[in-house]
Give the backbone structure.
Amino acid sequence: MGAIDYSGNPNQRTPCVLVLDASGSMAQTVSSGKTRMDELNAGIAALESALRQDDAALVRVQLAIVTVGGPTNDAEIMLDWTDATDFSAFPIRCDGATPLGKGVRLALNLAEQGKQNLRAAGISYTRPWVMIISDGEPTDDNDEWNAAVSETKAAEQTKKVEIFPIGVEGADLSKLKELSTKPPLMLSGMKFKELFVWLSSSLSAASRSRPGETLQLPSTDPWRNVGL
Amino acid sequence: MPSWLSASASVIGTGHSASGVPCQDSHCCIQRGDDKWLAMVISDGAGTAKYSDMGANLVAKSFAHSLIALSHRIDHREPGAWINDFVIGRILKTRDELRSLAKSESLKEYHCTLVACLLGEAGGFIIHIGDGAAFGGAAKAIDSTKCSLSDHLFSSPPENGEYSNETFFITEGDWIKHLRITPISNADWIVLGTDGGTALAMVADRDPKPGFVVPLITSLAYEKDLDARNAKLAEILADAQADRLTSDDKTICLAFRKSLGELNTQFVMPLPTITQAQNKGPIEKNSIGKSTQQNITSLQNKLKRKILWKVQVTRKVMIITIGLISAISVATWVFMNYENADVRQIHKGDGK
């Protein structure tokens, strides 16, 4: 008798775009004594190690990163679609303004593109997640910001993506609130590490659902019931 | 002696055990008393529904008994379109039982899928709503040492929405739109799996994965005891390596002809393109459960038709040949006579 073959990666993917605020205001020091940006970078490293510890999430999650601000002072794709197995964290530097609306719109396009790539490759997928982590002070002009708000709301309503707004310590939540029907989560004490650990553990808990219903995640109010 | 041997197991996924959610997969296999029929049902409860584990459990048990009831009917009545109606009636009965369990008109807390099959000596069929899959094939000896399992592959593939974690449930109002009944007439083995099970046993939910299915059947084919087969299957599903492929609950039910375990050859599975025998519509008369005698009669009829056709062709050829020969003879006779007449005339003319 031959051995059972457990190899291969036939899994469905969950595309996940991270929109990371790398604007100048992220250089502010918070209660831990580090800057918001240091904690965010530590969080991305934690994401990588959390994924590496979770076999099922590691073969399912695909990542892309959009940064907002930073040395180029623009919204840009920092990392195009990458399987979590191939992902390695890298530090992001902060500087400049916060074209968050532009970054969010870029992320929505990236999510659609991710789905198209998977479709073309014949790999099934779940609804993409867009996680927006910011201090909530966009510097886009009104038109750009309003366009971003209406696009994210429409995308959520038509189940194109699932949006997760997250504010860092001291963030202004009023703008982040506009991006999703879900209330923004305040990351008291900047718990990026926990957030990313939660991201991977809830993904592996994501089993099955159907349109219009919600998945019961293990914890983390107020997002306990996330539509997938 | 039973004509089919089965093995079945449901194993909780790491995603559920880690978060304290129960195993939401369920299965039920019933071999009829006289061993002529085997009913296998699996059901996968939705992660979004609070009591889907109870829903799946009820669906598997209730529907497996319904299939056995169906097998008794088939004993006395030739398979036909009535089977569709019977299946629909039995699903309605299961849904009624779910409502009693829920004590409510809404079944949304009990959402679950259905993958079922009824297997007789000469064939059977697959009944399917939602995701998960059923697939199988016939066995064919390649030589004295090897036996192919991929002769005549068939499948009832999963049905999903755009997103692979969206599917359709027996508990929904429009369940009948997603009901698929697939007759199978040439099967020596069959595997039923929930989506967690097919993550192991299939490649991208499309084709059987030989690297999994062949060793699986090989290891179970020589296990004479049902409990031992079930335990072995559970062990394979619970392997830590399986959790690398899926964090979902994993259920597999499989059955193979007893004779497969007596072949004493090596199983192989060369993969051609799979025939997707899905959405065939209502079952037509004679499409399933043909007895060997019926098969032989239809073969004899085919042979008779062939001979008749040959006789007809031979006759036609003979008639044409005879016609041609007579036409040529007449033409020759006319030509000869004409020539003679001509010569006679010339002679006459000469005489003048």
Observations:
- Strands of chain A lie at 14-22, 61-69, 74-83, 129-134, 162-167, 185-186, 214-216, 225-227.
- The radius of gyration of chain A is 17 Å.
- The domain at 20-207 of chain A is CATH 3.40.50.410 (Rossmann fold).
- Residues 100-120 of chain A form the longest helix (21 residues).
